[in-house]
Design goal:
The protein is α+β, with helices and mostly antiparallel strands. The chain folds into three domains: 103 residues, Beta Barrel (Lipocalin); 247 residues, Alpha/Beta hydrolase fold, catalytic domain (Rossmann fold, 3-Layer(aba) Sandwich); 82 residues, no CATH class. It is built from 14 helices and 19 strands. Strands 4-3-2-1-9-8-7-6-5 form a nine-stranded antiparallel β-sheet, with no helix packed on it. A hairpin with a 4-residue loop joins strand 7 and strand 8. Helix 8 packs antiparallel against helix 9. The protein is globular, with a radius of gyration of 25 Å. The chain starts with a helix and ends with a helix.
Length: 461
């Protein structure tokens, strides 16, 4: 509610005496562009105890994080973001009405922050026409909230059903890596929402769910591994078999990225699974895939070829050492020593050792490094559709599709396709670099959706 005018005047007087001339209170929403190119938003507030709280976001990259070491007085503002190895320092420019400063992340770039309205911040968000159409129109299918149990977890999800009596053929959607909800919100896109909507419109029931410990699901995400997520996916299949709306003999799985590793694992141990779609699923051991993924990421960031080669050798040795060491603390000590030497030798930037050691020795990575997709692929005899984007830099098609072809050589019902101009998210892309994901308005290429839907319909008919 608005205060009386006298209260407002007193408040203004108090501010006038608290801040010197040419000063600014940092609270509020600020926007600018790093180096004049990458739009960012800083949101600042102050708690009742006087401590600062701030978030930093790049709308075009679908990225947002809390900041550390935030400090501001009447004329200065600064903060750091450890996960980006980045920092910002600025002074208040009264004439420009902006925080004029420098963003440092490996190198320095100018960043001036001006007050931003909610409308101007919203305008920075890329459009998502496929998702907007789902929200804006009346859906020609039903959606039901469901819950089901898995070992050590209770999973919450959405079951979408075509209109009519059924029973319907169905698929379980299995997410990629990371703390994903049922929609797989990544880089500002809702990948599994768009996929579920498309398939349900094709007459296929779809179950998608929040990962354990994420969204409305219960369980421990932090200690979970790919093997736990495979148990959850199998529990999802088992749950569908209890539903009267579902034709139990026509249940398949569609997995994206890590989900493309999990779906064959479940199908290999459950021959009643009707079919599998692998969307950018790994074909080689996790340790080998991560080396290639990190090298391609460095190339996309513009790092010189000789440094990329040095980093590739480092990652090969680092991941091999982590895999070979059964004791996690000993693995951390070895990894720390290797990364600190790399920092001293200029192979890696300073300050990356600690966060990288923490990441690569957590339960998920230690399990993923050792996982071989081949045994599950060879063991399953169900129909399988394998899709990979030509521009995929996270699961590169040459490395992975060659290995998958070899593993599926004896399966006459395997179809393997490399889709031109598509990236890891199956968007139509230019380079395939992760920096493009959020900037592309398309969530899933219509060609990938049509191929997937047509193939699934051919299996269930």
């Amino acid at each position: 509610m608005m205060k009386k005018m006298v209260g407002g005047l007193l408040a203004m007087a108090a501010i006038g005496t608290a801040l010197p001339a040419c000063a600014e209170d940092a609270q509020g929403q600020w926007s600018g562009a790093i180096g004049g190119e990458l739009a960012v938003v800083l949101n600042v507030s102050k708690a009742d105890n006087g401590s600062w709280q701030a978030t930093f976001a790049s709308p075009s990259q679908g990225f947002s994080t809390t900041v550390e070491q935030f400090a501001s007085d009447a004329t200065h503002l600064s903060f750091s973001i450890a996960r980006l190895n980045a920092s910002y320092k600025a002074t208040w420019d009264e004439q420009a009405r902006a925080w004029a400063g420098s963003w440092t992340q490996g190198r320095a770039a100018p960043l001036n922050l001006k007050r931003a309205s909610a409308a101007s911040v919203a305008s920075l968000q890329p459009r998502r026409p496929q998702e907007e159409s789902i929200v804006a129109t009346a859906l020609p299918y039903d959606s039901r909230e469901v819950r089901f149990a898995s070992a050590g977890a209770t999973l919450a999800g959405s079951l979408t059903l075509p209109k009519g009596a059924g029973p319907w053929p169905a698929v379980v959607l299995v997410h990629g890596s990371g703390p994903n909800t049922r929609d797989q919100d990544v880089f500002g896109h809702k990948v599994l929402l768009v996929l579920a909507d498309y398939l349900t419109r094709q007459g296929i029931a779809v179950l998608r769910y929040d990962k354990r410990g994420v969204g409305e699901s219960r369980g421990d995400y932090a200690s979970a591994t790919t093997l736990d997520f495979a148990d959850d996916a199998q529990a999802a299949v088992a749950f569908l078999r209890t539903r009267p709306e579902i034709e139990t003999r026509r249940i398949g799985m569609v997995g994206h990225s890590e989900g493309g590793l999990i779906a064959p694992m479940v199908a290999a141990r459950d021959p009643q699974v009707g079919f599998v779609v692998m969307m950018a699923g790994p074909g080689v051991r996790g340790e080998l895939l991560m080396v290639e993924q990190m090298a391609l990421s460095a190339e996309a960031a513009g790092i010189a070829a000789d440094r990329v080669a040095g980093q590739r050798k480092l990652y090969q040795a680092l991941f091999a050492a982590i895999v070979a060491e059964p004791d996690v603390e000993q693995a951390r000590r070895k990894a720390t020593a290797m990364l600190q030497r790399a920092e001293d030798d200029g192979v890696m930037p300073h300050g990356v050792a600690a966060p990288m050691v923490k990441q690569f020795t957590n339960p998920w990575f230690r399990t993923f490094f050792k996982l071989e997709p081949g045994p599950a692929l060879r063991a399953m005899d169900q129909p399988v559709l394998v899709l990979n984007g030509e521009l995929d830099r996270q699961v590169p098609p040459k490395l992975d599709l060659d290995a998958i072809r070899t593993a599926l050589a004896s399966n006459p019902r395997a179809v393997i396709r490399e889709l031109p101009k598509l990236n890891h998210l199956f968007q139509t892309a230019t380079t395939g670099a992760a920096s493009e994901y959020a900037q592309i308005e398309e969530t899933l290429a219509p060609s990938a959706l049509a191929l997937t839907g047509d193939w699934i319909r051919s299996q269930v008919q």
